[in-house]
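The instructor's notes for this session suggest beginning with a concrete chain rather than abstract definitions. Hand out the sequence below and ask the class to guess, before any prediction is shown, which regions might be ordered.
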Amino acid sequence: MDGGTVHLQPPGKPPPGSSYELPRSPLSSSAAPTTASACQEVLRVLRLRLRAIRPREKEPASEGRSGDLEESKLAVVDNDLIVEAFGPQFANNFCYLPAIGTRGGVIVAASADYFDLSDSSCTSHTVSAKITMRANGKTWSISAVYGPQSDEEKMLFVEELKSLRGTVLPQWLLLGDFNLLVKESDKSSRNVNRRHISAFRSALNFLELTETRLHGRKYTWTSSCSAQTKSKIDHCFASVEWGLLFPQSHMCAITSSMSDHCIMKFTGQLGLPSFKGFRFEEYWLKQRGFIETVTETWGRPVQAGDHIRNFHIKLSRVAKALRLWSRARVGNIKLLTAVAEQETLPGE
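After discussion, reveal the predicted structure:
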């Protein structure tokens, strides 16, 4: 990802030039956290900008943003630069990986209106921090990376990624420009380094991370030469525990003319309305105890004045009984699904 930053902002029209959205609190900057909001998965929008920081003459400084992750191209980042680039709400709430020459460098900044960023640390190609959501006090770790380009350094980089496991929380998000492929189909040509792919996948299995699916585009980078090569070297990986915090997370591609890397918009919560009513699951028919539960519940006597009322009461009883039976028989289906998806990385 060619240049980048992390922003958190309220839902609404995104600022010009933004590249990534990650989760963020739905609270406005003036609202205090409430009990109701704390019950929601609040980290709604964390923005990642993958391009070099440059002056924005026509853009208000970080209006309405909440967090940023950006490839900085800078060896030193101070508070004045953060305030100028992103706004005063990001002051003293950032960490960064220094650039080496004109390559690399990553800034992770969070709006103090919604998050507290702490316990930051760096390795050669990564910067990590703990994020605490002010709305409900929940914490999770984020690690932003800018991978090396040489073959020798890539193998060392894979080992570097594995070393992060003991320094982050179970709720962990790992993302950035890895300069590595997860699978052979992540490149438009057949000229791939299978050794690097195997090592990278092995590291992801060791770290117990699953790649977040990118909707809308197969590749994230396009070469500038005449015979264009396309590849997916920008990735976002999450642990099972992070996925349970944000079960509705979604990542999609957005066209950009500013970089040879595509913009990747990652939203922690889609805000889809949830259905609280009864849902019949077809797989229940194959589960032991289903027929017995339905038969026993349906056969209970009903004292009602008409047949329609009797029918309604019986259906309501069966629905409630099946919910209880499923909870005891099957358990937490979201947790079981997340564990099953973790068993094998996509493409295996």
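Then share the key points. The two ends are 25 Å apart (CA to CA). The chain has eight helices and 17 strands.
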